[in-house]
Amino acid sequence: MTVRNKRPLSDADRRILRILQAEGRIANVDLAERIGMAPSPCLRRVKALEEDGFIEGYGARISRRAAGFGVQAFVQINLHQHTDETVARFSEAVNRLDEVTECHALTGDHDYLLRVVARDLDDLGDTVLKRLTRLPGVKDVRSSIVLNTVKDAPAVPVTLVD
């Protein structure tokens, strides 16, 4: 979703966004109390932030380890060619792979960067060798296994949003 309205955010909007990023399940009454506002105007602000595209959705963050995915890797992919058809076929195929949790088109040395989760190293090997290398248009694949995550902050810095 894209931001439809480039309206400036008020301090109250910023506080709402900060709190909702940290506590997406907070009740509107509690949210309103925390930002010093009555519940009805607070709910109207939240709805406006949703409609304007600042809030894309709500969901739970699932622990990949608790879900049985002990390995995480970043995979760099280059395509043979960059025609609209090749890119579309590659994109459609990547979107069908549940183990690919993110896919970004890049500038620079690689065409795409994928974040991939796997149960173990054997599972990662199967994913790379039997699925990713066989995707439409793929020329080469390079993977890096994550040893340790130093920072994993899904929140957008609201202080910079304007």
Give an overview in words.
The chain has helices spanning 11-22, 28-35, 39-51, 84-95, 121-132; strands at 71-79, 100-105, 112-118, 138-145. The protein has 162 residues and is of the alpha+beta class. It folds into two domains: 11-51, Winged helix-like DNA-binding domain superfamily/Winged helix DNA-binding domain (Arc Repressor Mutant, subunit A), CATH 1.10.10; 71-145, Alpha-Beta Plaits (2-Layer Sandwich). Strands 2-3-1-4 form a four-stranded antiparallel sheet. β2 (100-105) and β3 form a beta hairpin. α2 crosses α3 (39-51). The radius of gyration is 20 Å and the shape is elongated. The two termini are 17 Å apart.
User: Could you describe the largest sheet, including whether it forms a barrel?
Assistant: 4 strands, antiparallel
Count of individual beta strands: 4
Radius of gyration: 20 Å
Can you say what the CATH homologous superfamily of the largest domain is? Lrp/AsnC effector binding domain/regulation of amino acid metabolism (RAM) domain
Annotated CATH architecture of the largest domain: 2-Layer Sandwich
The coarse silhouette is elongated
Structural class designation: alpha+beta
The succession of helices and strands, N to C, reads HHHEHEEHE
Q: Which percent bin holds the helix content?
A: 25-40%
Mean pLDDT: 93
CATH class of the largest domain: Alpha Beta
Enumerate how many helices there are, as a single number.
5
Percent of sequence in beta strands:
15-25%
